[in-house]
Every structure is written in structure tokens, then in C-alpha cells.
């Protein structure tokens, strides 16, 4: 709180500045300022501004923490929490979906965020063509952060979660992305002829049904050429950038047929360490984009990388590529 005397030529006036920061919510800061032509008026205006700041502070503190600061505090809690049963990847997934899709009401007090706000975010996600799974993730995250905020009294009153009762079917309206048997053959033939750097990765994915993280973590020590089988026991997590267990947490064996054996022979089976080439962009989540680009460029259906697992099922039905 300051009163500053300003002289400009023959004119003279007083500038008054009043500022206050909340002790309950440090991100809340209220400022008011004004001018007066005499010191007496300046002192009177200062008292008036103090009263305005005080009343506004009570109002803002009663409303509670803003939505974006609530997200910040929840993220800090999740990062330091060892009692949560959810994985670190899932925790950060919640934070990211909240930051990405609740931006429009980020400055709203958390206690004032309502169902209309959340439904507005959901409608925006639908217009972007996002999946029901992504929308469900947002709803789950809103419910979780609300429950945490109430438990820790971050929200001054026990409001019902603004996402309470919102649900979406797990069934997607989009048709499943998959290549049929002939398309799989053509896809791998073209990739091999072009000597595409991703050919070994795609071929092993199609011929084993392994997930992308499992492919990245596959090592030569996982292969037993005498038994003609490979063991899938670990996976690479792109979020934590660490090797972890498989998604199911269980090991499994995959048979090696002639086509897969040929791919491994071309990759130098005498080597050690990781089997598949560390192609540019793989550990940055660009595998799907690169796959779609190749398929579209060769007039083949554009599919997600994960769809190659479905291609493996197709091959099982046909026994082997011919």
C-alpha cells in the first residue's frame, strides 16, 4: 500500500496503490489504484481502496482455488504420492487430459465449475473427432480431482462433481481399422522392396502380434532358435521412458514361423542387445504417423500401428503368408 506524490511541471497529484495477496490461496492477488489531487483526498481514497480489496479478497477466498491451480496442486500430489493404486502413466494421463480439454474454464474457481462447463469440453472433443475412450478419460479425471479436492478441503463445500453421472459407451462408432490378408501381404512386400527402415518392425509386429512397446524392448536373448520361439516379457513405456513389464503383467511365448525366422536372419542374429532398429521418431510416438504415411502413399487402407495386432490374428487364420 503506497501513496506516491507525482509532480509534472506545475501540476501535482497523488497516485495510490493498494495490493493484497491471500494467505489461504497464494495465487490470489487483488490490486486497486487511483489518483487524487490532494494528500487529504489521497488518504481517504487509500482507505476506500483498502476496503474494496478486503471485500474482494473475502469473495475470492470464499469461492476457493481456481481450476487451473487445483490441477497444479493435484499434479504435485500425484507425483509425490506412493499410496495411489494407479500407475504413474495413468496419473499423468489424467493431468494431461485436464490441461488439454478444460482450458476454457481454467480461471474459474473450482467450486464454480459445473456440468455445463464439462459438457462444453465434451462437445469440443466430439467435434475434434476424439474417441469415446478419450472422453471417458476426461470424465474420470474430473471426478477424481473433485473427490480429492473435497477430501483435502480444497473446495470449501461438498459440491457434487460436475462430471457426476456422465457416461459414454465403450463401443466406438468408427469401424475397426484392419488390413485383410491380401492387403497385409502387399503391405509387407512393398515395404521390403523399398527397403523401408521400418520394414523389420512392421514385419515382426504382423508376424507376432506384439504391442509397440514390446517390440521396442525385444532383445536377442528373448529368442530361442532351437525351440523356434520368442518370449515376450517386457515393454517400453514412452511416458516414463523406461522398460517395464507387459501390459498384462504376464510373460508369453510366440512361435517363430519361416517368415519371421527370415526377418530375424536378415537382422544379424549374432548380435546382442535390442533386435529391432531404433528408427527415428519411434521413442517419440511417431510410429503411427509413419505407418499411415506409407500405407496412404501405396493406396492401402490407413490403420493405426496397434491394428497390426489384428493383422496377426488374420495370419493365424490363414496359417502363414504365401
How many distinct folded domains?
3
CATH architectural designation of the largest domain: Orthogonal Bundle
Return the string of H and E elements: EEEHHHHHHHHEEEEEHHH
**Class from secondary-structure proportions:** alpha+beta
What does this structure look like?
By secondary structure, the chain is an alpha+beta fold. It has 3 domains: 2-63; 67-151, DNA polymerase, domain 1, CATH 1.10.150; 181-318, hpI Integrase, Chain A (Orthogonal Bundle), CATH 1.10.443.10. Helix content is 45%, strand content 13%. The protein has 11 helices and 8 strands. The chain has helices at residues 39-63, 67-80, 88-101, 115-127, 132-151, 181-193, 199-208, 212-217, 258-266, 287-297, 308-318; strands at residues 2-8, 11-21, 29-36, 223-224, 229-232, 235-237, 242-244, 252-255. The protein has a 3-stranded antiparallel sheet, with helices on one face. A hairpin with a 2-residue loop joins strand 1 (2-8) and strand 2. The chain starts with a strand and ends with a helix. The mean pLDDT is 83.
Please give the structural blueprint.
Layout: E1 2-8, E2 11-21, E3 29-36, H1 39-63, H2 67-80, H3 88-101, H4 115-127, H5 132-151, H6 181-193, H7 199-208, H8 212-217, E4 223-224, E5 229-232, E6 235-237, E7 242-244, E8 252-255, H9 258-266, H10 287-297, H11 308-318
Antiparallel strand pairs: 1-2, 2-3, 4-5, 5-8, 6-7
